[in-house]
Amino acid sequence: MASSLHVMLSSARRPSLNAAAKRGREYPLWVYLAMLIASDYLSFLSELERKVLWLASWTIHNANHLRENSDGLKVGGHQASSASLATIMSALYFDVLRPQDRVAVKPHASPIFHAIQYLLGNQTLEALQQFRAYKGAQSYPSRTKDTDDVDFSTGSVGLGGAQILFSSLVQDYVRAHGWGRARPEGRMVALLGDAELDEGNIFEALLEGWKHGLRNCWWIIDYNRQSLDAVVHEGLWERFEQLFKNFGWNVTIVKYGSLQRAAFKEPGGEKLKNWIANCPNQLYSALVFAGGATWRKRLNDEIGDQADVSELIAKRSDSELAALMNNLGGHDLLALIEAFRSATSDTPTCFICYTVKGYGLPIAGHKDNHAGLMTPTQMAEYQKAQNVRPGHEWDRFEGLRESPRALQGFLDCVPFAAKGTRRLKAPQIELPAALPVAALPVISTQSGFGQILNEIGRRNDEFARRIVTVSPDVTVSTNLGSWVNRRGLFGREKITDTFKDERIPSTFNWEFSPHGQHIELGIAEMSLFVVLSALGLSHSINGERLLPIGTLYDPFIARGLDALNYACYQDARFMLVATPSGITLASEGGAHQSIAEPLIGLAQDGLAAFEPAYVDELAVIMRWAFEYMQKDGDAIPSERNWLRDETGGAVYLRLSTRPIEQLPRAMTPELAQAIVDGAYWLRKPGPNAQVVVAYSGAVAPEAISAVGLMGEDRRDVGLLAVTSADRLNAGWTAAQRACERGIPDARSHIERLLADLPPHCALVTVLDGHPATLGWLGAVRGNRTRSLGIEHFGQTGSIADLYRHYGIDINAIIAAAQALTPGTPIRYLKLM
Ligand SMILES: Cc1ncc(C[n+]2csc(CCOP(=O)(O)OP(=O)(O)O)c2C)c(N)n1
Ligand SMILES: [Mg+2]
């Protein structure tokens, strides 16, 4: 065996080394590790690790010290935070990962990621040189803005870990439904800074993972014991270890590197090991920064009086001693590969890897190093030590011992990159021509939503099968119940409904099975949005398209807002149904009321927001949304409404529990288009209109009544139904921009709707949300405008009480119109 291995590893060195690496999992671990030690494979890896650290450091240096700086701002980049992960990421990307694996990289290690992709041929030199500049490599890995095969965007700490965890669940969901089984199952890997575990969403995700039987998930913690401001608390690893074990994870602590492990076997080694184990984090960091001579003094002072330890210390030079003390497990390729390759089961695993923030750089260990940059002098010394000739800083193999050909051969065989970049594509799901509308004469949009889904639930087609609903403990109260009764809950194992088994009547059938299509979450709204993000990227991550729908109460969007933003930033595709909303939920009162959410809908990039009043509108919007969620085109605006619909996105529907008398009308294609574009005339104003009322959502009855009353005395009063302030506004902005850029005829939907409005016509806008949502309408043609809406909240009462209290009732609308158009009848005021 030994001799055949030797032949394999020494003849035609590169290919055989990589063949060995590829086959690593087939060998028992100890054979594989022996092969690594015996071969040059480790030396190739450590050469590349060195190069990765150099390129990342140089990329940041170039951006801050060499590239022209036009605005005088610090460009930034995180040399220390990057260095902390150089070894771990080299071990992963060059050895451990496979193409089917997916990774969320610690945000501040972005330069390391870009450097690795540069070596693998997936990143350009220009992008590195433009790091943090316009269209260059991004500060934090970005799925949508970077071009080098980023699996998940990161940046807001804590979210990457959750994204990975929920992506593992989504992979299981997809495979349990019989899809994507031809592809190998991937591991989902998150690289986390130790301070990321301070984020609450981490724990919410862990709990959810435990409930859902999480598998194939790795969290690798870069345990450098530093955050942004400071050095972390002592003994944090013990809390982490206990915590993960409690949630059923395996925990592997990678504390000591091979140099240290060897030294511990020397006489006195045990004492050194004890000293390291008991050394406070702050002190260790400070000594790392101070270097070999300080290590020697400190060690001699504290344990040097014990003869065998003195010997152990004395026989090493200052630099050897520093190398020994810095050789924590997270910087030792062999220790890391051993740990990663030992994790062969699908049990979720947390690796706590001891690292040094700034490892290998002169800023290593300093508590202020998070945003610290190497000075030009420090960089020059580092460059010299790396044998990088001036002018050759970007050369991929400059200063390395192995030949460029051999290194290139090694990289060509790296298993992770063997199949090129790993973005998958999935075909679009065919949709029915229209969604059936519940025919009830009086119904709320929330009930309408439940009924539409219930009807979809009856279908036996791919469209119905690809829908997956998810809700944070508000499944029943957001009207998903009948859908869930039809399609069941998702669970990796079958669990029957005990109430049903015991023949106790219940409206809801709560059965779990691998075929179920509803994912029930605990209350944490952050988790809802991260799950939607994971489900909404399944077409790209798993090559299997899902049509995710998430429901929650509208005010609690705020609870998960950063995760929603994160999902949209990654271009995840989902339908968010927020209900009930506003103050219209009346007696619920207090913090259940929502004011700002329509503005979130207006402002959130990647999310098309709607607030329909009628269920026929909702059916049109949902049909359109399922199409929009699947779009994958270029950003070419249509000339009809100047919106970039071709690119698609996620959708937010703000619904209500208020039953509203439905309008008896036929849905024409023109009306359907206008609903999707954001508005239509419910009553078109005449040529001499003095007042137009524009409303959104549940206040439709008040708007209609006010217009009816005013119409008794005024001529030509108009009523504009706004189904999407967001799309209306975006189209208007886009058309103006097009005009400014040389297309003078560009007109948006709202400009066309208001084109014939006389200049003196007053506009009253009203919605159950912040008045600014529709306030901009007056600027479209310069009409005087009064915007009604909710600015304060917290009172309980009936709808009538609250509409009157907050000023969005019939009288408020009429009074506003009256104030804007003096000289007209005031008899409505008696209503007040
Ligand atoms: C949600 C969020 N809050 C704050 C920040 C600012 N921030 C960036 S890094 C960081 C500390 C990171 O420490 P750690 O996770 O330990 O990373 P490392 O030490 O490896 O740099 C903070 C607070 C952020 N990026 N995201
Ligand atoms: Mg840290």
Describe the structure.
This protein is an alpha/beta fold. 43% of the residues lie in helices and 11% in strands. It has 37 helices and 20 strands. The strands form 5 sheets. Strands 10-7-11-12-14-13 form a 6-stranded parallel sheet, sandwiched between helices. Helix 31 links the parallel strand 17 and strand 18. Helix 3 packs antiparallel against helix 18 (333-342) and helix 9 (159-176) crosses helix 25 (525-535). The longest helix has 26 residues, at 41-66. The radius of gyration is 31 Å and the shape is elongated. It binds thiamine diphosphate and magnesium ion. The site of thiamine diphosphate (TPP) has 16 residues, from loops. Thiamine diphosphate binds next to loops.
